[in-house]
Amino acid sequence: MHEHTRTEFLVAGDARLVDAVASAVRHTARRAGIPEAADAAFARAAAHACRLTLPLLNGTDPFLHVAIQEFPDRVEVTLEHSGRALAEKQVESLDKELGGPLAAASHGGKCVDAVRSERHGEHWRVTLVKHTQQVHHPH
Predict the structure, then answer these.
(1) pLDDT for 4-23, tens place per residue?
(2) Whole-structure pTM value
(3) Burial 43-68 (b: 16+ CB within 10 A, else e)
(4) Could you say which of 66, 74, 118, 125 has the lowest number of CB atoms within 10 Å?
């Protein structure tokens, strides 16, 4: 039976701390069964999303809340903060860059399978999703 796990970080506005998040994402992805090249790409994607989000933090809550969750069929990385929202064009760009054809060509597959952005109360939340098993659709 697969156990659901959750790892949380509170990241102050120091981009040097992002590497610790990326290491934890990669570890969780590997444990979940995501292949090595894909886990590295997913970790880079999470680090990139963190770096985009850090400048948006405000003094009310000066931390980027990061949750890495392992489910039986996927790994999710959720970034939450109370600062300014990530601009819609940045979310779209992140989705295209990490999940689109350029990412697939350069990494042998999509870095992420889905990017969700939403307001949750007074916080903004961006979630990156990577499935543990890729579904292949014939072209």
Answers:
(1) 899 999 999 888 899 999 99
(2) 0.82
(3) bbbbbbbbebbbebbeeeeeebbbeb
(4) 118
For residues 71 and 4, give the distance between their C-alpha atoms in angstroms, rounded to a whole number.
5
Task: Report CA-CA distances (Å) from 41 to 9, 55, 113.
Answer: 20, 23, 12
Stretch 61-75: mean pLDDT, rounded?
94
What is the three-class DSSP state of 67?
strand
Q: Which domains does the chain have, with CATH numbers?
A: 5-123 (3.30.565)
More reliable by pLDDT, 101 or 30 = 30
Task: With beta carbons less than 8 A apart as the criterion, state whether 90 and 115 touch.
Answer: no
